Amino acid sequence: MGSQKERVERLQLLAKMKKQHEEDETSEVLSRHLLEDYMIQMWFLGHQTRTDYLEVLFRSQKRNE
Fold it and tell me: pTM of the entire structure?
């Protein structure tokens, strides 16, 4: 993983993408898949790192519901 600043920037970008998926009424499963593909292609992140990012994004959503 990168620096704290880099992780925050990545999470902010992923949150924007996730919000766009919600506006487009994309299912959670497809949204997770698209976000994971993006992380692989753009940042070459490993499986555990991608899983951690997705858990942060989707866990915060469940807390707000």
Answer: 0.80
